[in-house]
């Protein structure tokens, strides 16, 4: 049954002119990053997001903001891409996936090798000064913060640097959202991967794709509002099904008996 569904998704991918993936927290839970909303384990089950992860809270008291976010930041920075991230990167390399649109800020798609990634909610590996608007690479800053507890500050104005991700009360980055919307309009196949489609406005994108005639495939552990309109719905461990999907696609791209061994050049 599952294998049959995956074969069907592989056929859709191979036939698609422009396929994109839309990913959410579910693709990163196998990397040890807590989901935001899962009952019992979700990050926001334990604290009030508006009180902690909001722009207002950051402006009011950056030191308290950093203290509250520290356990989450430690998990994010230690996380490694899992087989689901790697499989999406492989599909892109094989020319079957145009881009990944993600709600995640964990940078794991890029770490896995995906090249075209639209990060709707920002990127934890960057920091921004909300006063000077300067953006700078941040993994070094955060590691120093985790080790020494010192809040990183802007070299020009001395204010606390904000992680360059979208806090509650902040709009999505306009340019990224427009590009992602363009992808949703342009695609003829969208894989919804590990996204519960509850966070607006990002969760609108699969519906934008549907309105423009795309087919939808939903791979998520729980039901989503888009399931009824999806071509295929798969509720199974993403770290298992996505690598299998990439494998099926690759086998069809290189039928047995042809020069099946990929060259070094292609592998990269
Ligand atoms: Zn500054």
Structure described in brief:
The protein has 268 residues and is an alpha/beta fold. Helix content is 41%, strand content 15%.
Outline the structure in words.
The chain is α/β, with parallel strands linked by helices and 268 residues long. The protein has twelve helices and nine strands. The strands form two sheets. Strands 3-2-1-7-8-9 form a six-stranded parallel β-sheet, sandwiched between helices. Strands 5-4-6 form a three-stranded antiparallel β-sheet. Helix 10 links the parallel strand 7 (189-193) and strand 8. Helix 1 (2-15) packs across helix 11 (238-253), helix 5 crosses helix 8 (139-148) and helix 6 packs parallel to helix 11. It is elongated and about 60 Å long. It starts with a helix and ends with a helix. The model has no long low-confidence stretch (mean pLDDT 89). Zinc ion is lined by residues 129, 131-132, 154, 156-157, 159.
What attributes characterize this protein structure?
alpha/beta; 6-stranded parallel sheet; 3-stranded antiparallel sheet; binds zinc ion; 9 strands; elongated; 268 residues
